[in-house]
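FAQ: What does a multi-protein file look like?

Like this. Sequence, then tokens, then the next protein.
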Amino acid sequence: VVFTILSKFVEQILSMEKVIVPLLPFSIVSEEIPKEGLVLVLGDTHWGSNETKEECGSNYNFDVAERRLNYMVEKTLTNPLQSQDLKVIELLDITKGLLHSSEYLSEGGITGAMLKIVEVYSEVYAKLSNKYNNIDVIITNSNHDRTTQWVSSHMKWDNFGIMVYKMIEMLLKAKGVNNITFKYTMKEHHLININSANIFVTHADAIRSYKAHSQAAIRSALPDGFSVIHRRTGCANSCSDSGNPAQHRGGTEAGS
């Protein structure tokens, strides 16, 4: 289903007249700044979730989700610990999804949420691309973005979250943004290295299958020297050469 929809989206993109959209002026970071180190972590934004203060203690909708995302981006751009390149770790659960009949409860429905994500995130990445020399977007698997009510035990990359990011990637290329690389996984994790810091990246809900997994078991199975980035995190990190992150946290999860 996902690949069929993506192929139709490709046809639409290819039929568009390519227009280079002028971006807001930013000063490209100086060569004196370290090549890498700054990391923006996003996850569990649950676009489409429509909550009220009376129900869960705070309001959450498209406007709140967009405001929180822009807050994280601004904190990244103004972080005193900068680097020439930026890594974005996207832990997904980016939609409210289909769980618990959410296709009937989501703001705008599942398709409306997906279109809103593509619109907002493509603008955000275009803005970031004008600041940093290169951007790597590390995309994990997901839970809420799955295409079924049931917990997937295989093909977990076949989900709505991956699909919207493929659409964002296509739209950015159509706009002429060429310094962003999107990295997907057909496993349950990424293993990355930033300034000698080894990092294991996963969305913990996505590792579930018919056999239960515990975080303690996952940590014990990791090679020596690996740190863990998992779900329920929204932060802009700067990993120093020693591997110690200077961290700013700001919630991106619905209701947080």
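And here is the next protein:
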Amino acid sequence: YRVKWSQNTAMGTLIGVLEKDIENGDTADGEDNDRDTYIIGLVTKAGDVKVMPLIAYKDSNSSTTTDLDLIKGILAVTGEVAGLGFEAEGVVIDYDYSQDTVADATVYGIYGNIWANLDALKIGVLGAYGNWDTDAGIGYTFGDDFACGGAYLMGDSVMLGPAAAAEIDMTAVTLFALYADYKVNDKLSIGGYFGYAVSNQDDGSLYDDSDMYELSGDITYMITPNLKYAINAGTAQVEYGDTTPDPDRSIKLAHTLTFSF
């Protein structure tokens, strides 16, 4: 189950969440082997800047596997200053295991995106960084839904997340990207994206010192206010850090017709 509570205060909106992720209790101890998550966050503003801090605690108890206490802190900001729009987020995750045989870990990631709207042209630059904990042998993972600031392949066809079968996955990366969108007229717009990512892994695997890049673009035409047609094209290349042969270049071309209600 999941219970959410929110309250408007003088500082902003205060949010609390209690979530029962796994229910494994028995008749002797109803909370034994459960996994519970507690979250508290705030949505507030400092001038034209929205500030959103959050902290989460996860208590994972198990009599047969490793017990884990996980603490996650998040600070996100978004707004506009001096004509420039921006969004940024920082995340720190601490893993504290009860067993001495499992190494504790601390991983963190940061993301920033700045853009300018110059009449019909929007141009932006973004960066992201995820660390690698050498002692624990794990890195910060941006997640499968991280779109790399508008990338067409990175974060989708070419993953930036935990390794999975038949996928090209990197974790603990440093990412830099440039993008632009130009509105030709009320119906037609074009966009372009270039991104480069290098892995921060330090484990001697094929992803140690690997890198990849993407170049992509799109054309969108509004047939009606509710119906749009888009053509997307992109290419991406991964270069492994060891002697493993690099995979073939990824090429993706698609067109979509989207109706919105």
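Q: Is there any per-entry metadata?
A: Some entries carry free-text notes. For the entry above: Residues 162-168 have pLDDT under 50 and may be disordered.
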